[in-house]
What we know:
The protein is of the alpha+beta class. The protein has helices spanning 14-32, 69-78, 80-88, 138-154, 181-189, 193-204, 232-235; strands at residues 3-10, 39-46, 55-66, 91-104, 125-133, 160-167, 171-178, 207-224, 227-228.
Amino acid sequence: MPTATLSLFRFQGLGPRLWVIGQMALARLALRREGRLSFWKLCGSGTGEGFTPKPNWGVWAILAVWPDEPTARSGVADSPVWRRWRGRAVESATVYLAPLSARGAWSGANPFAPDPQPQTGAGPLAVLTRASVKPSRALRFWRRVPDIQAVIGANPDVRFKIGIGEVPLLHQVTFSIWPDAASMARFARGDGPHARAIKAVRAEGWFRDELYARFRVLGVDGQWNGRALLDPALLSHPDPDLAA
């Protein structure tokens, strides 16, 4: 079963931050030679938790898709790119993800092949959205983001969230972890800033392409903000609605 990984890295100081900016070009060469990968993207982030157009030069990410979980774990552990980035970062964390559903396209294709017989009751739900914003709609898009960010930040159900992107302002990715499918659905479908933004997207055609994917969280390695990125106890509580 294909396994996706989202690896986050925090860099401090001018030297490491300049180094990782250079990696946005140099690491691509090494990743193209990594035969275990079917898909990968190098991403920066915005300030705060990433949901802003102002770049955060200290937080960077690698999103990747591997053929299975053992390969994903060994790849993150021993791939030269991941080892070099961890060696320069002050902290790093990786989330291992099993695709449950995915619709839409990223660079013309859908990189997440869901398990045809997804398992249930095996942990929390992660949601990834990716959109390529039309330049003519970028201003309207970013005007909506602060309200959405405020609602997410105030939601006690969100266990983790971050915004990343390939190209500032135009190519945006959101990633969040929820304890169960019901809490995520309440946020996504409720009558709030997020729901109103979705309606505007459909009515006004803000995006060139977009992708929405849900994942079962298989595990988390490393630390973020000085602690475990996800409470280990959450992984032990089943959610029978994950594959619904």
